[in-house]
Write a structure and sequence with these properties.
The protein is of the alpha/beta class. About 45% of the residues lie in helices and about 10% in strands. It has a single domain, classed as P-loop containing nucleotide triphosphate hydrolases (Rossmann fold), CATH 3.40.50. It has ten helices and five strands, in the order H-H-E-H-E-H-E-H-H-E-H-H-H-E-H.
């Protein structure tokens, strides 16, 4: 079974705490490896997969026909930034764009919630990464009580239509939910407090949002179930282990790009008789 099927969201989704620490791809060679060796092995495998994806990205960029959108969602500290750094170190930056979506500005609030998103979708030959995304405009206001159930349903329907339009216009969509446990988030927040070089990452609002953990979990479950489609699938990736998280997503990314059937574009003219004087 391909990993795209193994980690795909299906009807009865439940984001259980114990699943966040799963390591389904881990091979410690019969229990012979220490934790450090396991992580080193997973990093090496991830680098190999990312390099293979980088080769396919060269064909995507050269062909300038297909497009790829990677959406990364997850609770605070689930590793969206780390995933981007690790997986895209082998990618030609000329064909890569990453956008982080924070709280909408006053100007953005004056428009429909998708208005600020559309300019950042990938153009021909590009990979676009959303660090958080249009889903924030459903999840956050729902938990805050700013929109009711009717509006939540309306926005999720609009997201389905938006993603269908992108897919019909040549965009391959891959959506990943980084599933972290509440205990692991506590550990990572404490690490940011203890390390002066990570103080810039700490946002006191993370502690406010942490109090609504269960509400966000239910909101995510509903959103993922409602918007998982064949043209814009959701994948749930256990994210308590950073190295294992990256290994899974690297596999998913490579399988997705292989499925795009990318190839080098045909030359603009017959080059068999061309001579360079």
């Amino acid at each position: 079974m391909k990993l795209l099927e193994r980690f795909r969201v299906r009807g009865g989704l439940e984001l259980r705490e114990e699943d966040a620490g799963a390591t389904p791809l881990r091979d410690d060679e019969g229990g012979k490896l220490r934790n450090g060796a396991i992580k080193a092995k997973e990093r090496a495998l991830t680098d190999e997969l990312a390099a293979e994806a980088g080769k396919l990205q060269e064909k995507l960029y050269a062909g300038r026909q297909r497009k790829l959108l990677l959406v990364l969602q997850g609770m605070d500290t689930s590793g969206k930034d780390g995933t981007i750094r690790k997986l895209f170190s082998h990618i030609n930056p000329m064909g890569l764009r990453a956008t982080g979506f924070t709280a909408p500005s006053t100007r953005e609030r004056a428009h429909d919630f998708l208005w600020r998103v559309h300019p950042h979708v990938p153009g021909s030959g590009e990979i676009a990464i959303f660090n958080r995304s249009h889903y924030e405009d459903v999840l956050v206001p729902r938990v805050a009580g700013d929109i009711d159930g009717k509006e939540v349903k309306r926005r999720l329907n609009q997201i389905r239509d938006f993603e269908r339009m992108l897919a019909e216009s040549g965009t391959t969509i891959m959506k990943v939910f980084l599933h972290i446990s509440k205990d692991e988030q506590k550990k990572r927040l404490e690490e940011r407090l203890d390390d002066p070089e990570k103080h810039w990452k700490f946002d006191p609002n993370d502690l406010v949002q942490r109090k609504h953990w269960d509400a966000y979990r239910h909101a995510y479950e509903d959103a993922l179930r409602a918007t998982d489609t064949d043209h814009a699938p959701w994948y749930v990736v256990p994210a308590d282990s950073k190295t294992h998280r990256n290994l899974i997503i690297a596999n998913l990314l490579l399988e997705t790009m292989q499925g795009m059937k990318l190839d080098w574009p045909a030359p603009q003219a017959d080059l068999s008789q061309v001579k360079v004087e």
